[in-house]
Amino acid sequence: MSIDTDTAARVAKLARIRVEEEQLPALAQEFSNILDFIEQLNEVDVEGVEPMVSVTPMRLKRREDGVTDGGMQEKILSNAPDAREGFFAVPKVVE
After folding, report:
1. Where are the domains of the chain?
2. Under a CB-based contact definition with an 8 Å cutoff, are residues 12 and 18 in contact?
3. How does it assemble (predicted)?
């Protein structure tokens, strides 16, 4: 597929990219090359090929997902400018 300079200028405008007039032919050629490459990819038969998440077959390391209460209430509240009765205290903002 071939892209002309008018189309390249329109794409640049839609992308809000300023392209000088003398650079438009090179940009149009780059767009054409990209579309040619996409056409090549569309020719590949991928029927029956499983999707991959990596090029090497490996499992991710996993850890036990255990729920804890944290057990650090006093340590966390020690950083608060104002803490009362085991909670963060904040100024009243609604009357």
Report:
1. 5-42
2. yes
3. Heterotrimer of A, B and C subunits.
- Look at residues 50, 61, 55, 3 and name the one whose alpha carbon lies nearest to residue 30: 3
Query: Six-digit token pair at 94?
Result: 């609604």
Who has greater pLDDT, 72 or 1?
72
pLDDT digits (tens, 9 = 90+) for 15-66: 999 999 999 999 999 999 999 999 999 999 989 888 887 788 777 788 888 8
- Distance, in Å, from the CA atom of 57 to the CA atom of 41, rounded to the nearest integer, reads 23
Q: Where are the alpha helices (DSSP H) in 1-95?
A: 5-14, 24-42, 73-77
